[in-house]
Amino acid sequence: GAGVSQSPSNKVTEKGKDVELRCDPISGHTALYWYRQSLGQGLEFLIYFQGNSAPDKSGLPSDRFSAERTGGSVSTLTIQRTQQEDSAVYLCASSLISTGGVGGYTFGSGTRLTVV
Amino acid sequence: DQQVKQNSPSLSVQEGRISILNCDYTNSMFDYFLWYKKYPAEGPTFLISISSIKDKNEDGRFTVFLNKSAKHLSLHIVPSQPGDSAVYFCAATYKAAGNKLTFGGGTRVLVKP
Q1: Beta carbons of A25 and A4 less than 8 angstroms apart
Q2: Which residues 6+ apart lie within 8 Å of B38 measured at CB?
Q3: Facing residue for B46 by CB, picked from A44, A45, A104
Q4: What burial class does residue B3 get, using C-beta atoms within 10 Å of its C-beta: 0-12 exposed, 13-18 middle, 19+ buried?
Q5: The CATH number of B4-112 is which of 2.60.40.10, 3.30.450.40, 3.40.50.10230, 3.40.190.10?
Q6: C-alpha B7: how far from its chain's center?
Q7: Is the pLDDT of residue A52 over 60?
Q8: Mind listing the pLDDT tens digit for each residue in A70-87?
Q9: Which of A53, B19, B20, B47 sits at 20 to 30 Å (Cα–Cα) from A30?
Q10: For chain A, what is the domain count?
């Protein structure tokens, strides 16, 4: 598609349940990122996929969080045993890594997760 | 440890006047800086960037200034328009970080007609 697509746009889940958030990046973009924005906060890095390299998972807040990127395209962020502090907007972005330097990301519209 | 800080959470400015948004960073490895704009219920969109080899980059009404010695950058919007009302995020990165961006907390700008 023309942009980064995320689904669902909104998700309400009960505490303790697992959730899966999906990101469909721009075709041909080699890099994919997950960030989250908690209420009133900035964007917090979660995980970064670049081509076939091992993902940079340094931002994942706990082992309840995991992410996959299948076939270098679609990515799924999974949160197990959700807690109320997981409530946030989860943003996915993709970019082309140019040899000349950093390219700007293209973000999706995000998934608003509410844990009740 | 916040490596990128935007100390003003909000800014109100009259239409036609200049908006100045500030951003400070602590990591001296950062060599590329970006500004993003975010409307409610939308993802952030890239606005303008600057490399550490420059001290100014201009794109239409938007200019970013970089002061490396002070580890400070600013975004100037002139003239400000009501459509500029949004949250603005400063971000920084360096090549070895794999283009991973570190974001500031954002500044909400309100442009009054």
Answers
A1: yes
A2: B44, B45, B86, B87, B88, B89, B106
A3: A104
A4: middle
A5: 2.60.40.10
A6: 12
A7: yes
A8: 887 999 999 999 999 999
A9: B47
A10: 1
